[in-house]
Amino acid sequence: MSEPLLTVEHLSFGFRNRVLYHDLSFSLAAGSVTSLIGANGVGKTTLTKLIMGQLKPTTGRIIRSPRLRLGYVPQFRNIDPEYPLSLRSFVALNQMQRHLPWHSKQEKAAVTAVLKETGLSERADQPLGMASGGEKQKAYLAQALLTRPNFLILDEATASLDVNTKTELMTLVNALNQRHGMTVLFVTHDLDLAKEFTQQYLLLTQTGYELRPTADMNEANMPKELRPTVEVR
Ligand SMILES: Nc1ncnc2c1ncn2[C@@H]1O[C@H](COP(=O)(O)OP(=O)(O)OP(=O)(O)O)[C@@H](O)[C@H]1O
């Protein structure tokens, strides 16, 4: 296994009198693809905030490799059909450290490259508001890629997309992993997606955690609300 990009050591964290994790330790190797699963409210988003440095551990520590460059893709939110920016301009919003009020040639080339990488080139000049759900989510992904991350956090990025669109987005994420060795942490409630598109899963529960290969996942042992619904006839 290659060196870890991220190591969590004996992490404890909670809000007021509710402890979310106690003595959580794991590391994520460069190039690994991990799903972060657990019941509602167990602390998945909070863990991503700790990883991104937006929250500080109560005890323990989070060691970030000097090579770590984080990118974040938020949960899918629909965008107003009247939203005026094109996909290209929306993606370029992530070029925040500009010294000039216009985009340089290199900046424009970087936007064109991430649009191509995410399969959005042909739609680039259409208004984002008119794009499909999958295209909108790919635009968020392209925006995150613009900062040249080597570790992508997808926070329920496929929730509320239809099955084909979820699959398409995760296929794209896996291609980024294959092509660039992108490390991925995919927060999800969807065990099928976790099994199909991630190598290992980090399950958070109220009493502990486990990090295992998805090939060893036993759905019967998963928290009830994560198990696929079985239709009762
Ligand atoms: N800023 C905050 N102050 C106090 N409590 C918080 C804060 N942020 C989150 N919480 C609580 O911490 C717990 C974990 O929240 P978190 O959003 O990390 O869970 P989650 O596993 O991502 O849930 P979901 O699957 O529903 O998105 C929840 O009970 C939540 O209400």
From TrEMBL:
<dbReference type="InterPro" id="IPR003593">
    <property type="entry name" value="AAA+_ATPase"/>
</dbReference>
<dbReference type="InterPro" id="IPR027417">
    <property type="entry name" value="P-loop_NTPase"/>
</dbReference>
<dbReference type="GO" id="GO:0005524">
    <property type="term" value="F:ATP binding"/>
</dbReference>
<dbReference type="GO" id="GO:0016887">
    <property type="term" value="F:ATP hydrolysis activity"/>
</dbReference>
<keyword id="KW-0813">Transport</keyword>
<comment type="similarity">
    <text>Belongs to the ABC transporter superfamily.</text>
</comment>
<keyword id="KW-0067">ATP-binding</keyword>
<keyword id="KW-0547">Nucleotide-binding</keyword>
<dbReference type="Pfam" id="PF00005">
    <property type="entry name" value="ABC_tran"/>
</dbReference>
<feature type="domain" description="ABC transporter">
    <location>
        <begin position="6"/>
        <end position="231"/>
    </location>
</feature>
<dbReference type="InterPro" id="IPR003439">
    <property type="entry name" value="ABC_transporter-like_ATP-bd"/>
</dbReference>
<dbReference type="InterPro" id="IPR050153">
    <property type="entry name" value="Metal_Ion_Import_ABC"/>
</dbReference>
<protein>
    <submittedName>
        <fullName>ABC transporter</fullName>
    </submittedName>
</protein>
